[in-house]
Give the backbone structure.
Amino acid sequence: MRLMLICLSLLALSACEGRQSVLNPAGRDAQEVLSLIWVMFGGAVLLWLTLGAIFVYVTRMEPREMPRRWGEMLIVGGGVIFPVILLGALLTYSLPMMKPQRDAKPGLKVHITAEQWWWRVDYELPDGSRVTSANELRLPTGRRTGLVLNAHKVIHAFWVPALGGKVDMIPGRETYLSFLPEEPGIYRGQCAEFCGASHALMAFETVVMTPEDFAEWLTAEAEAATAPASGEAVRGAQVFAREGCGACHSVRGTRAVGQVGPDLTHVGSRKSIGAGILNGSEEDFARFIAHTESLKPEVAMPSYDHIAPEDLRALVAYLEGLT
Ligand code: CUA
């Protein structure tokens, strides 16, 4: 009884959030994955019920020794013919599903590299140039997007359950996944391969937009950073330069051209910071800068807890203004 309760509550917990669930598909690929899940589940239930029925029959209903010919029929029928037909049918159903994913020509290409523990995101424009962003993926509806996946140091896995399958990201070897999103919304993605101390803190938001909104957003994202608007933000830009943030981070249009950490050109417009772990409010920005190492264990960025509170506030004003 207790075991059953535990199992049932685990089942309930596993699907409590819709925006990161295979049970709430928002794209064609995820819809196919879900259909596959139900068909496979149905096949498994059918097999289990059949075996259960045979077991009940031979132990309860007809426990006496059965004629040899009957026994042989049961072994050949239930042990060979039935599984071959069932598994063959499931295989025939599932194999063709792999084809459209591989053959489809993507309308948009995005290069994603997994870092310790964040995501480098590059949108490839039709002329071959790239727009660099980080820790957030934006996709248009109704258009297949090809994701070219890489990893820098160790193996990670790319997974946005509401949009499609899961693919490993392997250092030195490019892998590929494509999505056809259909429902505008915000869906959570999560690294799905243990990759070190902060593996669980390696997430991101996927913002699915209408094609018009997406085109507008991409044009804005390709622009250089906006100049600081307020006096406080101007001072924040000075703190940014003084603390050497530009050695690791890029802010396009400024002297910050570091490549080690996430690009911050439009960090103020992102839905989350720290690779999906904080919401991006003023307090979150300040917390992340001052307590990086405790919020994200073993990350390359040190905690900037020596910055004076008013300087930290100015720095946050500057970063939040980078929209
Ligand atoms: Cu990256 Cu787990």
In short: DSSP finds nine helices and ten strands in the chain.
